[in-house]
Amino acid sequence: MMVNPYDDSRLLLALQVDHSRVAGFLAAHWGNAMFSEPKPFSSVVLAAQEHDNGWAEWEIKPSTLNDKGYPLDYHDGSIKYLGKFRLDFYKDGVNQIVQRDPYAGLLVLMHGVGLMNGGYGRFTYPPDRTANPLVKEYVDHQEKLRERLLADLRGSEEFREFITAEKLWANYELMTIFDQMAQFICNRYPLNNNGARQSGPHSDLNNVPVPVGQGQDPVRVTIDPTDEKNATVRPYPFDLDPLVVSFPARLVPKRSYANPEDFLKEFYRAERITVSHSLHAS
Ligand SMILES: [Fe+2]
For residues 128 and 132, what is the distance between their CA atoms, to the nearest angstrom? Predict the structure, then answer.
C-alpha cells in the first residue's frame, strides 16, 4: 500500500495491486518511433500489470500498522512488518500468473527476486537482502522455479525466441522502468509533491537503464512534474501524447490508529476517488 499525504486531515491510499495495473497500462502504451513495443506484447504487459499481484493477499485486509499506528506504507519495511508472509505471497502471485502465461510468470518471478537480490546485481536500490535467511530461502526457491520455467519455455514454439539472455534481461529492465514510473505516479499526491518521499523513485527513476530496441544502447528516462496533474517524460516512450493515467485510491483520516480494527473500519468505509494524471512529451 502506498500511503500518501492528501490534505490536512486525510491520507490517500493507493493499493499495490492498483499501482501494478498502472505499470501494465504504461507497458501497453509503450512504443513509438524511438522505443520498440514490448515483445511478446501480451506477456510483457500482463507481467507488468500483475508484478505486485501477490500483495492482494494482504491488501484485502491490511491489518498491520506501522510503529506509529499509521497504515503500513510500502517503504516502512514489508519484511520487517510482514516477515515470511511477504515472501510467501510473492510466490503465490508468481504461481497464479504462470498458470495463465508462463513467460509473464517468469518475468514476475524475476522482478520479485530482483527486489531482494539487488536486481541480480544490476541495481544498488533496493539493496541486496539475501543475508536474511528468510530472503535467501525465498530467492533459492524462486531461482529453482526459474530454471524449470526456462526449460519449459525452451520447448515452447510461442516463447522460445524470447528467452535469449539479451531479450529476457531487456524485458526484465522494461519491467523495472514500468514499476519505477508507476511508483512515481502512485506514491505522491499531487503529482508535483516532490517532497512527499525520501525513499522511492525521484525524477531520475533511479537511473535504471531503459531498453530502446534490439542492438541499441539503453537510455535513461526522466519524469518531471509541471503542475499538480501533469508531467513531462524525456525521452518520451509512449504511443499517445498526452497519455492519461488513472488509478483508484481511497481517503482515510490522517491519524494514528489504536489497533488494526480501528484502521480497517476506516479502510473499508473510505471514500473512493479516481486520480488522473497526464504524461507529456514536452
Ligand atoms: Fe511495483
Answer: 10
| CB atoms inside a 10 Å sphere around CB 125 | 12
* Distance between Cα 122 and ligand 1 center (Å): 17
CA–CA dist 23, 182 (Å, integer):
5
**In contact, 201 and 183? CB cutoff 8 Å:** yes
Cα(238) to centroid of ligand 1, in Å? 19
Confidence of residue 217 (pLDDT cuts 50, 70, 90): very high
pTM score of the predicted model? 0.97
Q: Which residues contact 131 (CB under 8 A, 6 or more apart)?
A: none
Domain chopping of the chain, boundaries: 2-280
Q: Which residues of 177-212 are buried (b: 16+ CB within 10 A; e: fewer)?
A: bbbbbbbbbbbbbbbbeeeebeebbeeebbebbbbb
